[in-house]
Amino acid sequence: xxxxxxxxxxxxxxxxxxxxxxxxxxxxxxxxxxxxxxxxxxxxxxxxxxxxxxxxxxxxxxxxxxxxxxxxxxxxxxxxxxxxxxxxxxxxxxxxxxxxxxxxxxxxxxxxxxxxxxxxxxxxxxxxxxxxxxxxxxxxxxxxxxxx
Amino acid sequence: xxxxxxxxxxxxxxxxxxxxxxxxxxxxxxxxxxxxxxxxxxxxxxxxxxxxxxxxxxxxxxxxxxxxxxxxxxxxxxxxxxxxxxxxxxxxxxxxxxxxxxxxxxxxxxxxxxxxxxxxxxxxxxxxxxxxxxxxxxxxxxxxxxxx
DNA sequence: CGGGATCCATTCCGATACTG
DNA sequence: CAGTATCGGAATGGATCCCG
Lengths: 148, 148
Known about the structure:
The structure is a homodimer.
Chain A: E1 2-3, E2 15-18, E3 27-30, H1 40-48, H2 53-62, E4 65-66, H3 67-73, H4 79-91, E5 95-100, E6 106-111, H5 113-145
The first copy, chain A, binds a DNA duplex through helix 3 and helix 4.
């Protein structure tokens, strides 16, 4: 039983198990010719696992913002990464991009319905992070002093 | 107004806004001498944003597993990354590690209470990923054909 | 203003070999 | 069985310059 899909066809005789809840029986899936992005979880993690995606989703969940506004909200992001991350979020359908042909041009980014639906469970996770950050840092400090 | 904490003290006169829900008023936080890991969200993302963390949390949310079992469940993980990721998860207090001094030795990993509490909102997010993967891939295909 | 293009440092991660 | 150590390639991301 293999966990989550993997690249290539190296394990064509194996199966992949989609684990989710302990209350749900495990489902076996043929792994032959299954590619990386076929696994929803690996796909999502590889996307929003980036350094900036979640921060931008957080901002745009509030309201629409222009490129320069976002840049000022995340002061330590480079222009390159801001552009690139916004493109990826747009490509996945989480945010929309509208160009206003003013001089100089302005571009506004806004969350889509799909993006809002993603942000719901995501916000819960971020709330957890904030609520439990002290516990995590305590565990970390304890481990660093004497690895259990 | 800056979004989320950043490194160093370069923006000592700025403030950071913790954004979360549109229903919650924005809170301003002094950014002076605030380091990277002081932001719970950035900290969490940099941790579980890795390639393997979520998969291992998913597995261990089911039941305890031994090192070799986890390795077989995630066949495309290297021994190096399995060890490393498990250490990080243990360090943050999400999982525990117990050594049984048999010959040869066996080591069992199990989720902690903190890990289970993290897995609750995380599982919701993963459920979303599975439920909406088709929509994401459709948006991606559409974008690749003609960038909106 | 909102990018694109290029170069470079760092980090991540896989492969391999070795060990108690 | 469950690691550790080392190496090298791949991917990530920052800095800088240019452009309509």
